[in-house]
Amino acid sequence: MAATFNKPRDSRGFCAVKPEYALTLATTPTTPSEQIGPKREDVLESQTDVQNSIDLEKDSRGDDTNPPTIENSTKRKRGMNKARHMNKVQETIRLCPHVSRSDGTGNPCPFQETCKFSHDLQEYLDSKPPDIGDTCAVYQATGFCKSGWKCRWLKSHRGIAMDKDPKTEINTVSKDFMKDLRTKQVSLPLSKSFLQSLNDKMNVDETGGNEDNKTGNVDTVIKPGEKRKIDWSGAKLLAPLTTVGNIPFRRLCRDFGAEVTVSEMGVSMPLIQGNMNEWALPRAHASEREPSRSGRQGLFGVQISAPRPWQAAKATEILSSYCDSIDFIDLNCGCPIDLIYRIGAGSALLDAPGRLIKLLRGMTVVSGTTPITAKLRMGTKDNHPTASKLVARLVRDVQLSAITLHGRSRQQRYSRAADWNYISECASIVKNIKQEIENDLLEKGIEEEVGQRQRTAFIGNGDCYSYEDWYYAIDHCGYLATSQTNDRWIFEEIESRQHLDKTSSERLEMMKKFCNYGLEYWGSDEYGLNTTRRFICEAQSFLHRYVPVGILEILPPRLQDRVSRWCPRNEMEQLLASTNSADWVKISEMFLGPTPDGFTFIPKHKANASNDGQAEG
Q: Please, one GO biological process term (predicted)?
């Protein structure tokens, strides 16, 4: 992003570190035992030790003039660990959920002899590992612990009568409903009518007949102008994030000031088929729709992907009809993942604008009063952006609540900087077209149409790492969605308009809060505990790259800048900056206890960890 910086950037792509924290060691240790570098005082007092360490390394490598051989060279890690497998740690004796309530109020198991779980509570308790601690964070926060006897902090509520389940999750559907979806027992009249009208129109186009009134019966159900209006101006949006954008993560960002959150992307076909894992994605915590710390009402949207109009229409009608806590539904037309692209969804829709418009029209027709938004990329190929033409068509032909543009191409993925000049150009196009439409309606004397139309907002996305980036985008685009994997407190920085140098203790407290939210969502039993452990490690695979602003010489920071060798200010800061995935597991043990046998963690991205990228418990 083009922004004003105090000093020029390092052209080599490194973030500049203040001289007193910079290291000149020839090696970059990756674990606390090796250290990121010696203590800062040692660096300042003794340059001799540094030189000796360099000389020793030269001796071990031999003459520097000799090129490295295959044996002693290290290949740079690239790409993803696509074949990674997460072992699910299970208890030796699996207690039946119906008898797991620790206050004795559990319902009798309706399956009895045919139940595959154990009903012998004493046998289960005898085999259960010792409690991790004295206080169950879930029970302390809500007065209820859904894990019951299976809770790893059982002593804090053993035998105590619990409050009623607070039901803090929204957009949950029953197993019976998912079964009805699988057996095609759910009626979708709006989708059926729209798809019939679409087929009729195709037949009219083929025969050359009259197409009048072929789609009128559908379009009059809910007009775009009758949908709920969303005021996007000045809203602090958290963009959806795959893998790490779960409920605990979004709750944490809400605590720091996020006002609009979006679910992880759900695939339309598994949603239509009632897939249990896919239906976990539209869920949200009730706090995501409560007023934020600024007083603004929180908004929650569900993002989906679809390759065909019938899939998009059916998934949208199901979500809008059976989930009553969705403020908008977003179609992801920018997902670069090969699996999504190959089936014709995601960024593949950028090269099929006609099909994309049919998808969005169908979603608009069947969504009732729920607004529809779309997420785009600049195009599928570098140096060939197509979004400017596409957004112009979308504003004219489809009345969306908002269009989000990520300033990168599919080919670019997340490399290099986002092109905010292009985003600004598209924002101007949207503004001009909206004005043209309004003027045209006024000239025709149909002023009431102006107020009834959805005034499509245009939102920029990409490379927002500081409050300066955010305000720059607001000035040049009007709205901004930010996705933060390194700095959850950017929303706090936006409010205060200053860079915040969070201490290692504050960052550790943030991780503790994430763990508590994770236990509340996934459960405080063995399964929930290790699911939380996995996602805190996933988060740390990005967080470890964060360099505190008090150490940086040039602000604001950029995610693309590689981290220079720097000296931490204390041991905890050193641990949080470790690139060794085994250290991430150690951090999780501070809050979740020792890892069980068989637990392994492999980072999603190969470059995100050292030591072959695998940590075991």
A: mRNA processing
Among residues 335, 426, 537, 567, the one annotated as catalytic is: 335
- Residue 511 inside a domain? The answer is no
Domain check: are 253 and 391 in the same one?
A: yes
**Are 396 and 440 in the same domain?**
yes
Q: Are residues 20 and 141 in the same domain?
A: no
Per residue in 564-596, pLDDT (tens digit) is: 788 999 999 999 999 898 999 999 999 999 998
Same structural domain for residues 149 and 184?
Answer: no
Residues with Cβ < 8 Å from 245, sequence gap 6 or more? 238, 262, 263, 264, 483
Nearest to 300 by CA among 196, 171, 213: 171
C-alpha distances (whole Å) from 81 to each of 335, 466, 531, 614 are 19, 30, 19, 10
- SS3 at position 599: coil
Q: Residue 449 sits in a domain of what CATH number? A: 3.20.20.70
Asked if residues 470 and 498 have their Cβ atoms less than 8 Å apart, the reply is: no
Q: Are residues 156 and 189 in the same domain?
A: no
What tokens does 366 get? 């069947």
Q: How many helices (H) and strands (E) does the chain have?
A: 21, 13
User: pLDDT tier at 42 (50, 70, 90 boundaries)?
Assistant: very low
Cβ contact 25:50 at 8 Å: yes
Cα separation, 306 vs 340, in Å, equals 9
Q: What is the pLDDT of residues 352-410, one digit of tens each?
A: 999 999 999 999 999 999 999 999 999 999 989 999 999 999 999 998 999 999 999 99
> Could you write out the DSSP letters of every residue in 62-90?
--TTSPPPTTT--PPP-SB-TT-------
Number of domains in the chain: 3
Assess whether 130 and 225 both reside in one domain. Answer: no
Q: What are phi and psi of 496, to 5 degrees?
A: -90, -10
For the chain, what is the radius of gyration of the CA atoms?
Answer: 27
Per-residue burial over 296-311, b = 16 or more CB atoms within 10 Å of its CB, e = otherwise: eebbbbbbbbbbbbbb
User: Is residue 333 annotated as a catalytic residue, yes or no?
Assistant: no
Helix 309-322 with 353-366: angle, nearest 10 deg: 30
250 and 272, same domain (yes or no): yes
Task: Give dist(CA 180, CA 188) in Å, integer.
Answer: 12
Q: Among residues 134, 166, 198, which one ends one of the domains?
A: 166
pTM of structure: 0.86
Among 148, 166, 184, identify where a domain stops: 166
Give yes or no for a contact between 106 and 100, defined as CB atoms under 8 angstroms apart. Answer: yes
C-alpha atoms less than 13 angstroms from C-alpha of 23 in its C-beta half-sphere: 24
Identify whether residues 6 and 108 lie together within a single domain: no
